[in-house]
Amino acid sequence: MQLTIAHDDFASAVADSARALPGRPPAPVMAALKLAADADGTLTVTGFDYEVSGRATVKADVTEPGTVLVSGRLLADITRLLKSQPITLALEAGTRVILTSGATRYTLHTLPLEEYPALPTTEQLTGTVSGADLTEAVTQVATAAGRDDTLPVLTGIQLDLTDDKLTLAATDRYRFAVRTIDWTATDATVDTAKTLIPAKSLTDAVKMLSDDRVRVTLPGQSSVLGLADSSRSTTARALDGQLPQYATLWPTRESINATAIVDSGDLAAAIKRVALVAAGNKPLQLRFTDGTLSLSAGTSDDAQAVDTLGIQYDGVPDFSVAFNPSYLLDGITALAQPATVLWMTERTRPALLTGAPADATISALEYGGDPLQYLLMPIRLSS
């Protein structure tokens, strides 16, 4: 193998593929990146950890086609620190790769190709989505995914395909994030499907993809999700099981007793200030009155904090509810809108958070249908 490639192209391909490398490789060969130079003038860089694979293809001046395995983390560190000069790769004596960039030269030992596992295969292409929408949706719902590996189902993001919409959902039992994006089918026989993908795997996968159209292959018999754009492709193995049915958790429009619109930046800042005395994620209490939101935390036996914001409010007088401050802040951050709308029923029932433009008014709000909905369970306060 011998080739010359632009530094930025190579560094980007290595960094993207290295996302799929395992933190604790079960075998030395699994810590490697596979570099395959093709006579058509492309270099394909691949990483794989049995659960996730990442593959990046870039243009290169290939004088000798060939395939090698080299240490992935080391190669990623090297390409990150090299100057932005063309890079030459050459296989020497069949066991060493010489990497040259300007006056810098590295000798990298290769690993046995025959020990590298075959990448998983995917089913027939199912449809396409906007890469920008998919990346945003995954990032937004991943904040609600569980972190407890003893409950693997709750560590996943569920993809639910219905007609021309793809819905992503995640929960850790204390909050539920749901985001819907447009879907263009390429397989007319598939109009409904549901699969659960580890949140970390899916989050890493979408970081590789462009903002243009992304080709999606939903898991079938292979239990493997496939995502690809013009130069990057990735796979992720699905989890067994499904998330709990969440539709019944959502409050109905008729059950809403209190609605508030708050400036998102002001609310986030106030939560951070008051939460300083809510160590260990102790509850943050919100009290709504006409035109005012009071946030408080702490006890008489410890530090206390109170902050007040001006808001739009419509509902029962003197309505109060308590939340985990970190979870509430996560929801506001995920919504990423100038204003946050809180739809509330009772102090012991889940509240729904949605986004709104800065000039939104309660009289003009429409309930339901928001692209991202964040359901948050309240904390019961002792009387």
| Tally of individual domains | 3
Proportion of beta-strand residues: 35-45%
Q: Tell me how many strands there are.
A: 27
Residue ranges: pLDDT <50 for 5 or more in a row?
A: none
Using the coordinates shown, work out and report the CATH topology of the largest domain.
DNA Polymerase III, Chain A, domain 2
| C-alpha end-to-end distance | 73 Å
| Large-scale geometry | elongated
**CATH H level, superfamily name of the largest domain:** DNA Polymerase III, subunit A, domain 2
Q: Main beta sheet: strand number and arrangement?
A: 9 strands, antiparallel
**Strand order, biggest sheet?**
6-2-3-4-18-17-16-10-14
> Class of the largest domain in CATH?
Alpha Beta
Rg calc: 25 Å
